[in-house]
Write a structure and sequence with these properties.
Elements: E1 5-8, H1 11-14, H2 28-38, E2 46-48, H3 55-58, H4 64-76, H5 92-111, E3 117-120, H6 141-151, E4 158-162, H7 169-174, E5 181-188, E6 212-217, H8 223-240, E7 244-248, H9 266-278, H10 281-284, E8 288-291, H11 298-314
Helix pairs in contact: 2-11, 5-6, 8-9, 9-11
This protein binds zinc ion (ZN).
The site of zinc ion has 7 residues, from loops.
């Protein structure tokens, strides 16, 4: 069967959150799924149970010392895993392992052609560095995914596309000198928003110059500005023809997010997903893995993520 879209749903994933009332609270998955059910999309997807990653998988991207630190602080639930944005809680290691493991399971299913598209709502934790947490992100599932696609599955040229309001610094700097990691990131200008990076001149280093596209958007940028900038993303992907596409579709770029200042509507997310689905078959056999990323207004994340899911479903049938 190759005509399906997989979605990862379950308490193990929902548990990745920093407590009720926190912007990244454990109610985000439920807010999305309720909307998916109300809109009838939930009944059309293949639901997959969250899967945990083992330590060896994490260490394809993260340093053993950092993984050890998360394990230790997960037992006590005390302190921060970075300089003060990402608090530990009891069981945070296990919760973070389910985020990464679900993404890796989605990759396995996509490559085995069990499905054509996959969506992991609680994932796309793009700020974590190889040796540290950052910005609510404990393990960088995107980074682990890239390393796993290469070392385990033998793919080389991977594209990472990110429309979250924040710059995907944890992915960008880990692969800044890597000419086969095609990176495109539209984010709120770093002069106005965490993490402050992702200037237009940051286009890769050494042999990787030109394989990275950072597009800072001014505060209050709307759908028209998004669509104009998005053309450059498609041009980059056409030029480098990736074998696999990772799509971080953070919903905090929608107007009304409590911690950012962009003003897209969910139509931007729909537009991006449709553009990625249209990429020629020969580039990556139509495979697309979407990860929910940020999004702290529950209503917005429900609408943006279901917009992406709808596009994945519309484009999921394989001819013949
Ligand atoms: Zn974000």
């Amino acid at each position: 069967m190759s005509a399906d879209t997989c979605v990862y749903i379950g308490d193990e994933l929902a548990r990745y959150g920093f407590g009720q009332g926190h912007p990244f609270g454990p109610d985000r998955l439920g807010a999305f799924w309720k909307q998916a059910q109300a809109s009838g999309l939930a009944a059309r997807v293949m639901c997959c149970a969250p899967v945990s990653a083992d330590r060896a998988s994490l260490e394809r991207f993260h340093t053993p010392a950092y993984v050890e630190r998360v394990i230790r602080q997960s037992k006590t639930g005390e302190g921060y895993l970075d300089l003060g944005d990402t608090p530990a809680f009891p069981g945070i290691y296990e919760a973070a392992c389910y985020v990464v493991g679900s993404v890796l399971d989605a990759i396995k299913r996509l490559l085995a052609e069990e499905c054509r598209h996959a969506f992991v709502p609680i994932a796309g934790l793009h700020h974590a560095r190889r040796d540290s947490a950052a910005g609510f992100c404990v393990f960088n599932d995107c980074g682990v995914a890239i390393e796993t696609l290469r070392r385990v599955h033998g793919l080389q040229r991977i594209a990472y596309v990110d429309i979250d309001a924040h710059h995907g610094d944890g992915v960008f700097y880990a692969f800044e000198s890597d000419p086969e990691l095609i990176f495109a990131d539209l984010h709120e200008d770093g002069r106005f928003l965490y993490p402050g990076t992702g200037a237009a001149g940051e286009s890769g280093r050494g042999t990787a110059v030109g394989t990275k596209l950072n597009i800072p958007m001014p505060p209050a940028a709307g759908d028209d500005a998004f669509r104009a900038a998005w053309r450059r993303v498609e041009a980059l992907l056409d030029k480098f023809q990736p074998e696999f596409i990772l799509f971080q579709c953070g919903a905090d770029s929608i107007a009304g997010d409590p911690i950012t200042h962009l003003a897209y509507t969910p139509a931007a997310h729909r537009h991006a997903a449709a553009g990625l689905c249209r990429l020629p078959e020969q580039h990556c056999s139509g495979r697309l893995l979407a990860m929910g990323g940020g999004g702290y207004n529950r209503h917005n994340l429900a609408l943006a993520w279901t917009a992406v899911l709808e596009v994945l479903l519309e484009n999921s049938s394989t001819p013949g």
